[in-house]
C-alpha cells in the first residue's frame, strides 16, 4: 500500500505556501474507534473480485477487490465487472447511468448511526465524493449529485444531523485528485497510473477547492479526510490551494484535523490502509480497513472474507496499544441498510467494549517494551487510573507478562489476579481478556 505522507511535491519555490501547525485533538486521541462509510453508485452493482490468493501485479486493477473502484474496473477489457455491467444493465450502459438506478429507499440515517453508536464508535466519516465524482450532498458545483439524481436527497446532511444527534463526531471523506466524471483518461491499470492519469490543471484545482469549501461551510466536519492527493495546480500559495483551504477550514472548525493524503508537507496524522505501521508510533495514526476485503459492499464476499468478532477486537486492541485509532469501514447496501453480517460484527464488538472499554477509550500507549513472543500474546494500554494488560490469546499457554500485575483484577468478572497470570474460566471464549492493574497513589507508569 502507498504511504501518502511521503508524497509532498512539487516544489513551487518562492510560491511554496505556509501551512498551519496541526494539533491532534484530545477528543480524537480519546475516541480510538470510528466508522468509515463507503456508499455510492458503486453500491448498486456491489461487485468486485474476491482474491483468494495474491493477484499478479499486472492483473491487480482488472481483478480489483475494492467494489468502490467499479467505475474504473468496468472500463477494463476482460474484467468481470465489465461482464457484470453488460449482463445486468445492458451492453450500452455506462457507470454513470447508475445514477438513475440508485434510490437509497431504505436509508434511515438515525437507525444507521444508532447501530454505529451501539458498536462503540465515537466518530463517523462518510464518503462525500469518491473517485467516481458522484457527490452525496446538494452541491452547486455539478448536477452529478444525490440531491439532483438517484436518491434525490442530501445524504451528507442526513449523516451529519444523525451523527451529532447520536453524540458522535462527524467527518467527511473527499477524493481530492481523482474524479473520473470530469476527466477523460483511460482506465487506471497500475499503481503509477493513480498519479499519471489524473488532472492537475487550474480548472480542476478550483473545482476541488470549491467542493471541499462547500463541505466545510455546510457541515463543519470535525475531520477533513482527503484521499489520493490534490491537483498540483492547487499546491502553491494560490487562493484556491490546499494551504488556503486549510486556513478556511481551521477558521470554520478551530479544532479540526486533516489526514496525510493531500500531497503536501502538512498533515494532522498518518493513515495506513489494510496495512500496519509496525511497532509503537510516536505520531498519531489511523488504521483504515473494511470488515471484508473491500470498502464498498461486495456481494461476492462471504463470511470467510469478513473479520470475525474476535479478529476485529484483537485488531482494535493492537492498533490502540500502538498509539493508533481504528477507522473501520462499513459499506452500506444500495438501499441504505447495513448488511446483516456487518451488523453482527459491530454488535459483537460493541458488547466487548461495553465491558472492556476502559482499556480502549481515553487510553495512551504503554512506554514499556514487549519481546517478540510477548507481542503475540499481549497488548498494553494506560488509562488515568489503571494500566490494562490485554491478553490477545486468552486460551493459549501464556509467556511471562511484560509488567507486574499484583493487585490487578479481570474486567467483567471482578476476579483478582493470582500469583501467576491465569485467565479465569469466566472469560472462556472472550476474544481478548483484560487485566486492570491500578496505579499506586495515583501515579502513572
Describe this entry's structure for a reader.
- It is a single chain.
- The strands form two sheets. This protein has an eight-stranded parallel sheet with strand order 5-4-3-2-1-8-7-6. A five-stranded antiparallel sheet has the order 9-10-11-13-12.
- It is of the alpha/beta class.
- It has helices spanning 26-31, 70-73, 80-89, 109-118, 155-165, 193-196, 202-219, 242-252, 309-321, 340-356, 372-377, and strands at 33-38, 123-129, 169-175, 223-227, 257-258, 270-273, 285-290, 324-331, 364-365, 378-382, 386-391, 409-410, 433-438.
- The longest helix has 18 residues, at 202-219.
- The protein is built from eleven helices and 13 strands.
- The protein is globular.
- Strand 2 (123-129), helix 5 (155-165) and strand 3 form a beta-alpha-beta unit.
- Helix 4 packs across helix 5 (155-165).
Overall 3D form: globular
Average pLDDT metric = 95
User: What does the radius of gyration come to?
Assistant: 23 Å
Q: Order the strands across the largest sheet as they lie in space.
A: 5-4-3-2-1-8-7-6
Query: Which residues sit in consecutive blocks of at least 5 with pLDDT less than 50?
Result: none
By DSSP (H or I, 4+ residues per run), the number of helices equals 11
User: What is the multimeric organization of the chains shown?
Assistant: single chain
**Which structural class fits the helix and strand makeup?**
alpha/beta
What is the ordering of alpha helices and beta strands? HEHHHEHEHHEHEEEHEHEHEEEE
Beta-strand percentage range: 5-15%
Cα(first) to Cα(last) distance is: 35 Å
Please provide the count of β strands: 13
* Helix amount: 10-25%
Largest sheet: 8 strands, parallel
